[in-house]
Amino acid sequence: xxxxxxxxxxxxxxxxxxxxxxxxxxxxxxxxxxxxxxxxxxxxxxxxxxxxxxxxxxxxxxxxxxxxxxxxxxxxxxxxxxxxxxxxxxxxxxxxxxxxxxxxxxxxxxxxxxxxxxxxxxxxxxxxxxxxxxxxxxxxxxxxxxxxxxxxxxxxxxxxxxxxxxxxxxxxxxxxxxxxxxxxxxxxxxxxxxxxxxxxxxxxxxxxxxxxxxxxxxxxxxxxxxxxx
Amino acid sequence: xxxxxxxxxxxxxxxxxxxxxxxxxxxxxxxxxxxxxxxxxxxxxxxxxxxxxxxxxxxxxxxxxxxxxxxxxxxxxxxxxxxxxxxxxxxxxxxxxxxxxxxxxxxxxxxxxxxxxxxxxxxxxxxxxxxxxxxxxxxxxxxxxxxxxxxxxxxxxxxxxxxxxxxxxxxxxxxxxxxxxxxxxxxxxxxxxxxxxxxxxxxxxxxxxxxxxxxxxxxxxxxxxxxxxxxxx
Lengths: 229, 233
Known about the structure:
- The complex is a heterodimer.
- Chain A has a single domain, classed as Rossmann fold (3-Layer(aba) Sandwich).
- Chain A is 50% helix and 12% strand.
- Chain A has helices at residues 22-35, 52-61, 66-90, 101-110, 115-121, 138-146, 166-187, 199-216; strands at 10-16, 40-44, 94-98, 130-135, 191-194.
- In chain A, strands 2-3-1-4-5 form a 5-stranded parallel β-sheet, with helices on both faces.
- The radius of gyration of chain A is 17 Å and the shape is globular.
- Chain B is α/β, with parallel strands linked by helices.
- Chain B has one domain (9-221): P-loop containing nucleotide triphosphate hydrolases (Rossmann fold).
- Chain B has a 5-stranded parallel β-sheet with strand order 2-3-1-4-5, sandwiched between helices.
- Classes of the chains: A alpha/beta, B alpha/beta.
């Protein structure tokens, strides 16, 4: 399935496990770009009108086996790609995606699906112009999540029966997902950010990389406006 | 879950393919009764019958919010759910699974919507190969005649007419059905479908299917099964 290139806008994705702080950074980035006058569209994983509620219901009821989990998320993603992301890019907007296809590749690999099958499933999606990968240890991710809630069943990979204990399952699943992300960081040239750094420092690293991207793509310096030449 | 060879499971996987109106559902109901009457455990499943996704698909079809890509993927998800929650557990438990439209219907419909055929096959490559695929052969003309004769409930989640990728105008629907019929014929040759004449009376079709299935069952279970119960009157 050949993918359509993204143009003339820019697509920037933030990736990483739950508790990596990527959503915080994505919001900072949106605000910063908007302050500079850019038209920014923010899109979140599992938020399509088509199936996101169904996915959440399936998670709540614990009904999602690996292929079902994978294909439902692919459906959600395809719908957002066609109805939100591509139209926004066509208008020249900057799209910030909180999770993109690497989330699916990492999680589905962690659930034991063949990597080449998942790659093929997502072959309809063109890679982003820039992808940040917020890398964090399982311990830190868990402690961050625990400040406000318990890890969720699927977030902890409990469906895989890795361990009876929720926290231990979370650690083991996190390690698997991180392995998959690490491999893609090399093969797909994700920009890795140490997510244990102070938030402000991470923000600086993100802005620096985005500045470079804007410049390379002919967005006017200082304003993030103007679009491609 | 890898694409398993049929013999890996203690159960049997039987698919019935054909155009809407070919009589697949009727034949499956009759097969299920026949099998259960003779102490075989049979379970039936059909397209858009998943617990989670059937409603999403129904809603999407009502609001016409599916593109060829999302049509393809949401049906893949419906299939995945039924495969993982019904088909595979049933096969593992040694049951006979009767599938009303298997992956081949997706090959046909996604293909007619312009989705790359090789990609669709790749997507469904995790699906186990059926022990037998029956193909109720019917001309597009006859399928349309039946569809217009038999009143259908508007419940799109279950059986019913696939309105096709474009408009519902009579002519375009005829054309769509003709192209479907051609696509099924091509797949029938490639995947060795067991052809059944869909124009025949229902009991004769049933007898033809049972004859083949009885052979498969005897071989698999090394147990007896009679073809005629319910048909010998």
